[in-house]
Amino acid sequence: MIEKFERAAEEAGFVLDASQIAAAERLSALAAELTGRRRFFGGKQPRGVYVWGPVGRGKSWLTGVFYEALPVRNKRRVHFHEFFREFHAVYARHRKERNACDLAVAELLSDCRLLFFDEFHVHDPGDAMMMGRVLTSLFDQKVTLVTTSNYPPDGLLPNPVYHHMFEPTIKLLEGNLDVLEVAGPQDYRAESTTGAARSQFQRGAYIWPGTEQQLREAGLEPPTDGERQRIDIGGRDLVARAVRDDLVWFDFHELCDERTSTIDYLGLADRFGTWVLSGLPELTSGSRDAAQRFANLVDVLCDRDAKLYLVADGPLADCLRGDALPIDINRTASRLMLLPGSATPGATRATRQA
């Protein structure tokens, strides 16, 4: 399979660096194990692969090439957040059973033998505890896991107050997966010139400070007070500034300062493909929880290939600054930098006030 990686890189216009080659070789070996005869005649379960490193180094691209080229049917690729949303829904039906977690995993994956999680990260301690049970069930049911992350396993759930709670799960990951760092010198996403750096957020725009003229130039009619609408999501109401067919318009305060969750964002993304989020402040002035919710929202919208119009109080560099930012803000910034208008040359606090 290594030739497929080299060919895909050539078609995308770049050459594999040393860390990408090492990852490609390990993924090629895994492909051989998954498709070899021993796999179907009681052979040992292949070890999975955990690919981590900074944003834009080609982790998702490498694992995507592997997944698409792997000639097996019983495989599944799913974003981490999507899988756990499905899991919670199925788990609720089995929760009275003693082995509810095992039953839910078996129902979700059926005969799946290879599961691919993209963007694996853990911040919520409640999710972390359930995740340990799910991973144990996955490995007990002989599912091989491949995942990408911006963190090494021992960097997951980084909050020092809770990190010790996740240490057994870290050992579980390290015991079942080969950990590979992909951290070459080139940030392909920042350059955005190759297939490895393709971003869904090349649609939409970053708009600041968001005057009515700027909004109309972007094709957005400013919402009126009469367009405010309550949207039921998960049994409670969220207030949108406007709902227009496939477009939903939220204020940052209404969506991120409230106790919303990634599950809420996934439900909304099922219904709306075009988003306007207005009032993005300089995050240093807000709460860490609101900043983390914003980062989670960006993850969901990017992975869903949504069109995002982000209306901010200032340049992106000013907004994504401060001590209240989530640890993985680099991933958020990397994605938002590809919104047209987000990297205006010379955009500073001074030019905004001029």
Largest sheet: 5 strands, parallel
Order of helices and strands: HHEHEHHEHEHEHEHEEEEHHEHEHHH
Model regions low in confidence, pLDDT < 50 over at least 5 residues: 193-199, 345-354
Instruction: Please state how the strands of the largest beta sheet are arranged side by side.
Output: 2-3-4-1-5
Average pLDDT number: 88
Question: Would you kindly provide a written description of the structure presented here, covering whatever features stand out?
Answer:
The chain has 354 residues and is an alpha/beta fold. Helices cover 44% and strands 17% of the residues. It has 15 helices and 12 strands. The strands form 3 sheets. A 5-stranded parallel β-sheet has the order 2-3-4-1-5. The longest helix is centred in the first third of the chain and has 18 residues.
How are the SSEs placed, and which strands pair?
Blueprint: H1 2-12, H2 18-35, E1 48-52, H3 59-69, E2 75-79, H4 80-94, H5 100-109, E3 114-118, H6 125-140, E4 144-149, H7 163-176, E5 177-181, H8 188-191, E6 204-207, H9 212-217, E7 229-233, E8 236-240, E9 242-244, E10 247-251, H10 252-257, H11 262-271, E11 274-280, H12 288-303, E12 307-312, H13 316-319, H14 329-336, H15 349-353
Parallel strand pairs: 1-4, 1-5, 2-3, 3-4, 6-12, 10-11, 11-12
Antiparallel strand pairs: 7-8, 9-10
